[in-house]
Input
Amino acid sequence: MTESRAAKILREVFESGRPLTYVRSTEEQRIARVLRELSPRLVADTPVPIWTWSLTQGIHREGRDAEPGTHDPRGALNFIAAYKKAGIFHLKDFHEPLRESSEIRRSLRDLYENCRDQQKFVVITSPVRSIPEEVERSLIYLELRPPDQVELVDFLRDELREIANSGDTSDEILQELAPALQGLTLDEAGYALRRALATGNRLGPESLPFLLEEKRLLINRSGVVEFITSSTTAGHVGGLEGLKKWLLERRKLFQMRDTLSAEIVPKGVLLMGIPGCGKSLCIKAIASAFQIPLYRVNMIEIFSGRHGKPEGAFVEVCKMMEDMAPAVLWFDEIEMGITSTDSSGEQGRIFAFFLTWMQEKTAGLFVAATANRIDLLPAEMIRKGRFDEVFFVDLPLDEERVEIFRIHLTRRGVDAAQFNLDQLTQFTSGWTGAEIEQCVVSAITKARLVDHEVTEEDLIQVAVKIVPLSRTMKEQISHIRDWAFERAVRASPRPIGR
Output
């Protein structure tokens, strides 16, 4: 039987002979599951009994009454000290008596000596870390990461057995669906499972969207990370063939990440360039191409102070996202939130952490960042090794503008074949992709108002009235192009105009 990550960590702690373990976790039931998983493995041929204590229920075995005199914390410790056999003792919320009573702290230190080399293991669980200095060296402190695939598959299998009329689900299906739940607690995974089953009586590949929808709701409640649901593919992106080719090549490597060395597995990509030219669209297409979920970090929320100090909130987000892997993590307008300015302040410390984290993060997390004010990006961020590649997204070429027109017309149910799109290039020189989309939307709107199908003439009439960004912000765009000329790879297959 494959061992879960949490079980392996606790087993190694027990096998090292440490009698006292403090686990910070809100998932008491999950810890109980892990301890049950370990019970048969600690002593040869004999499952180790598990005793559970809480202030309301005293110390007891599952399905049995509490032992007399053990509702009191001191009585529970006395019971463990007097117990003559191997055992696992799960103490819930024991941080409260530890903090409030010097007598309990002394008793726990005595218990440390009593349990050493006796196959007696005390596990304190609490949602907060509260370890008095007197007992800190006697305990080993753990923060278990969210359930891994092994744990999730076992949980789903057990849950399905308990749910009436859920049908038989093969392990292959469970292995396929479990990654969609990574990063959730077991309770949250249970809610997602019931949401999926509410749409039918069986769990299968068709349940994946419902699992992801529940995950989206749970993730978005944080206010710091947003789960992005998008059906955007590379076919929705006009032009940028150099970038598309690179992504297709890296997709294969990313899918083989478990068999490759970490230095070969794609880490991420930075897209910089002119606003409105498809950088955000490309990020959504990456997630679709890699067939993994997409999450966007809200740096405004991180710096709002509503989630604690920005530095701590950012570190927590990055750690949480590693537990969500495989996934694409999107930093939009990264230059506005992660810079090296004021190295002694919050932004400087966040920047320093980000650089180190990019080097050491889990292989299943692909970081995709976009930037408009590229001159604000420090050299440390764009050097090789942080991101796999830095691409510059320029104004679309003539043939790319034709393709973008075709994409936006087709998406809105208009037959693009009836238009001479090549003729439109003379009216749209210097346009961004966003301006082309707005031209199409305005022309279709105008046609609907007079109750006729959109025509080429409608597009031209709208086009001649639009003043493109490249004209209104000519100096700034020239500056962006000059800056990127020798610092980035072209996303389109021609030299950057200067």
Q: What stands out?
A: The chain has four domains: 5-143, 149-219, 234-393, 398-466.
